[in-house]
């Protein structure tokens, strides 16, 4: 068991405390809103990334594939469609919770009133600054690949 001044990983200091981040329904009610992220999880030491994203009426996120991360998507306002390559499109309405498995290809199309949604996924490792180790050199297998593109 850890003492009050010790975090679960053994570091000393103040353990993080649960706290309210934002009111998603109030945030989604601030329409019209510009397209893009309306809110981002920014707490230091976090293991997750999360965003509240808004697409205006008729807006979309083009076909893309997330190779590394599973993503949860929760529709908080509006409506739209989650498109898939096999044509099995899913209707998106407020309250819909979707799992977007890593490796899947998808697109998101907003309906006539726009679409606001929360995405949550494991945090990508940060980029590290240092000397480049040539492929095949000792230690090259231990390199962390750079983080890649946007996740939806």
TrEMBL record:
Q: Which CDD domains match?
A: cupin_RmlC-like (cd02208)
Superkingdom of this entry's organism? Bacteria
Q: Where is this region: Disordered?
A: 127-152
Q: Which InterPro entries match?
A: RmlC-like_jellyroll, RmlC_Cupin_sf
* Protein name according to UniProt: Cupin domain-containing protein
From which organism does this entry originate?
Answer: Actinacidiphila acidipaludis
Highest lineage ranks of the organism?
A: Bacteria, Bacillati, Actinomycetota, Actinomycetes, Kitasatosporales
């Amino acid at each position: 068991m850890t003492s009050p001044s010790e975090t679960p990983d053994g570091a000393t200091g103040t353990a993080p405390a649960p706290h309210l981040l934002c009111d998603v329904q109030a945030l989604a009610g601030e329409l019209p809103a510009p397209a893009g992220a309306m809110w981002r999880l920014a707490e230091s030491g976090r293991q997750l990334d999360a965003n509240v994203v808004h697409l205006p009426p008729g807006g979309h996120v083009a076909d893309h594939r997330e190779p590394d991360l599973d993503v949860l998507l929760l529709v908080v306002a509006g409506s739209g469609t989650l498109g898939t390559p096999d044509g099995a499109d899913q209707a998106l309405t407020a309250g819909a919770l979707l799992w977007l498995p890593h490796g899947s290809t998808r697109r998101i199309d907003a309906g006539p009133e726009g679409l606001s949604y929360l995405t949550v996924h494991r945090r990508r490792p940060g980029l590290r600054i240092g000397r480049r180790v040539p492929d095949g050199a000792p230690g090259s297998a231990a390199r962390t690949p750079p983080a890649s593109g946007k996740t939806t």
